[in-house]
Amino acid sequence: MRTVAEKQEMRRTIKRNKHEVYILSLEEIDNVFKCNASGKYVKDQWVKLKNKVEFSANYTAAGKDTVLLAKLIGDLGYGGTKAYLKRYGGNTHIILKGYPGLRKILTGTKYGIQNAKVIKMGLGKYGAVNAAKVGGVLTIILLSTYRVIDYFLKDNSTLNQLVGTLATDVVKVGLATGASVLAGSSVAALGVALSSGTATGAIVGGIVAIGPLAAVIVVGLITSYALSYADEEFRITENVIAVLDEIEEKGIQGIINEKKQAIVNKGKDLANDAAESIVNYTLENTKKILLKSLNDIFRKMVSPSIR
């Protein structure tokens, strides 16, 4: 049996952990957003903050990886750690030489390249690839959240605008993530090639340990910026939205019929141009023949007869 004091403590614990849960349908959530977003103050504040929110959504993953890289450098750099790869029992391991007591996270001297701690810290190829993939997923989630909020808070926004921007966002993030993974894997392969020899110096250790993650961050940032610039320069998102609007207005079959008619009209124009060219060629040659005949006749008439 519980004592009175224990029962009172349990009641207080229950009160402290009391939560209210509201279950809403999609229609009800839409109404809540519309009601809350109807105020001019909310919309004005969103206009002021949306660019910063979009920037944060795009580059939060890169910032997270940069912090991870700084931790990795701090853990390995201060202890004079040297890293290289070596195979034991058919499996590749990352060997850390230095003073384990000076390291806070990677306190061991040997780790498998797929060790959970190695991957979590972004160490080596698998760690860098994991960081790139996790960063890509995080960016998609943050950007999708931002686009949905912007859709509800922005006046005159359409569903096609939301779908079009989300589609190009996913493609850009996918390309940036792919480029990051390729860069990280390439640097990791370089580290394997260097460490397979006798070289185990600081430069080789840096390539093996932090090189792949650094490559993921740098290439990811450059690719993201380049894709954003290309999107604005060539108006890719705007064209995608325009296509969606056209599909909504005319329907798929209507667009197909329109394209077919355009091809037929183009064929007619080509046929007319060809016929016109043939007629012009015929008239031109006929004119030349007539002029030549008339010229011969005229010369015979004016020239004296030679007997």
The major sheet is characterized as: 3 strands, antiparallel
Roughly what is the average pLDDT, rounded to an integer? 78
Shape field? flat
Task: Report the portion of residues in β strands.
Answer: 5-15%
Radius of gyration: 36 Å
Residues in helices, as a percent range: over 70%
End-to-end gap: 154 Å
Q: What string gives the helices and strands in order?
A: HHHEEEHHHHHH
**Number of separate strands:** 3
Number of helical regions: 9
Spatially, the strands of the biggest sheet line up as 1-2-3
Structural class: mainly alpha
> Which oligomeric state applies?
single chain
Poorly predicted runs: none
Describe the structure.
This protein has helices spanning 4-16, 26-37, 40-77, 116-120, 124-153, 159-195, 202-209, 211-234, 236-302, and strands spanning 82-88, 91-97, 110-112. The protein has 307 residues and is mostly helical. The chain has a domain at 40-234. A three-stranded antiparallel beta sheet has the order 1-2-3. The longest helix is centred in the C-terminal third of the chain and has 67 residues, at 236-302. The radius of gyration is 36 Å and the shape is flat.
